Amino acid sequence: MKPTRIAALMAATALTGTAAFADTELNALFMAQAAYSEEDIRAMTASFEAANPDVSVTLEFVPYEGLHDKTVLSMGSGGAYDVVLFDVIWPAEYARNGVLVDVSDKITDEMTSGILPGAWTTVDFDGASYGLPWILDTKYLFYNKEMLAEAGVDAPPATWDDLRAAAQKVKDAGLVEYPIAMSWAQAEAAVCDYTTLLSAYGGDFITDGQPAFQTGGGLEALEYMTASIEDGLTNPNSREFLEEDVRAVFQNGDAAFALNWTYMYNLANMGEDSAVAGKVGVVAAPGVSGVSEHSAVNGSMGLGITSTSEHPDEAWDYIVHMTSQPVQNAYARLSLPIWASSYSDPAVTEGQEELIEAAGKGLAVMYPRPMTANYQEMSMALQQGIQEALLGMASPAEALEGAAENSGL
């Protein structure tokens, strides 16, 4: 642990005795997986409390799968939270239902010019900003350099067909039974992986207000997913994996390839509990010959103020602190900063140059999941359809037709 983090955590400990006497108490809801660790968020919060002794922040962490519902349900119970973490796919719904405060008038010129343009898509909807971007993320293709060398694979895959060919070589060499690990459980994680492939194949989710993912690139994406399991290349347990399961399999040395978020790079490549430390490579997710060079899903998240907060000014101050460049630069090992100039700072880039190079390509082509107020309904239908196809309960075409019918569009 870095000394600065130790100091921050000591500050947090010192403040616990005085938190009850703070003039203002904020409640903040965060995600208990991927991106920043709970320890990091607690340290970031402690530094805010140290600078604002009249404010204390109570943190709650839930799995991603519970983040949306926990936020929405709290609105009907008098508003349990002042600050909430939200996914890029929720601003349309939250704006329609008045969940978050429009903070457009709080955005400074420094924020507008300094934050990467693509990051603003995380919090903006219909001309308004509903918070500040905090996690700038997409999925990357991770690979085991040692395994690829032993299998005679000279370079990481540039296309999804290359991935299948490389995985087959690894399998034929007897290095692992299933070379690829994916997070394809019936959850949003599977939709993110599916979106990555859909973008590679040039597909669309919606055309003229109607579902379009059941044809063209959307259909080809699911056909690729099912074939990779049928061919014995993707671990069949991927149908039950979330991102942390993928990380565990990959860093235990039981997979040569994995699709996952930024946070996995340093945990797998430098973590004390990783069996593949020093052997991890990372590139932007592959493309499809003649269609795309790279592929990526927009997995970014923002911090917003709930409309029921009784302390919106203090909540905004907390959000500004958590998203500030100094804080983001200090914790750039699990989530890359939203600030453009951070990428020329050695404190951010040193030791993760390979990741920064992959980010330069992946973040530039992030494909959005549909920005629709009915997204939750659409996602649930897609999750079910993807699972049916992966389990062989329906063909990819049949599964996606059913998802389109149940998408709420």
TrEMBL record:
SUPFAM superfamilies per UniProt: Periplasmic binding protein-like II
Signal among keywords: yes
One Pfam match: SBP_bac_1
The entry's keywords: Signal, Sugar transport, Transport
GO cellular component assignments: periplasmic space
Range of residues in the leader sequence: 1-22
Location in or out of the cell: Periplasm
Chief localization: periplasm
Family indicated by similarity: Belongs to the bacterial solute-binding protein 1 family.
Alphabetized PANTHER family for the sequence: ABC TRANSPORTER PERIPLASMIC-BINDING PROTEIN YCJN-RELATED, ARABINOSE-BINDING PROTEIN-RELATED
The protein's name: Multiple sugar transport system substrate-binding protein
